[in-house]
Amino acid sequence: MSDTGRQSFTDKASAALKPDSEKSTTEHLGDKVKGNADSAGSTLQPQSEKSYGQKAGDTLSGNSNNNDESMMDKAKNALGMNNNK
Predict the structure, then answer these.
(1) In which band, very low, low, confident or very high, does the pLDDT at 67 lie, cut at 50, 70 and 90?
(2) Where do the domains of the chain lie?
(3) How far apart are CA 48 and CA 37, in angstroms?
(4) Distance between CA atoms of residues 50 and 25, nearest Å
(5) Helix residue spans in the chain (DSSP H)
(6) What is residue 64's three-state secondary structure?
(7) Could you tell me if 51 and 19 are in contact, meaning their C-beta atoms sit under 8 angstroms apart?
(8) Cα–Cα 20 to 30 A to 5, which of 34, 40, 43, 73?
(9) What is the dihedral of CA 4, 5, 11, 17, to 10 degrees?
(10) What is the pTM of this model?
(11) Residue 75 and residue 38: Cα distance in Å, rounded?
């Protein structure tokens, strides 16, 4: 479960698993806005205040604020599903 004010893990997974070629412009923009808001939330929330689940979710989504590519993006790139990189 994600912490209050953060994007749910279900929403992140849904957005990440749908191929970019099948997303509308609105979906692309929504994903970008939600991702940026979640990244800001990750930056503003001290590690000491994050739940264990949120820490794990941030690590898996690459949202640990060190500009690493997320594991999901790495998988999408390997499968040729990430068209915007």
Answers:
(1) very low
(2) 9-79
(3) 20
(4) 33
(5) 9-17, 25-44, 52-61, 71-79
(6) coil
(7) no
(8) 73
(9) -110
(10) 0.61
(11) 21
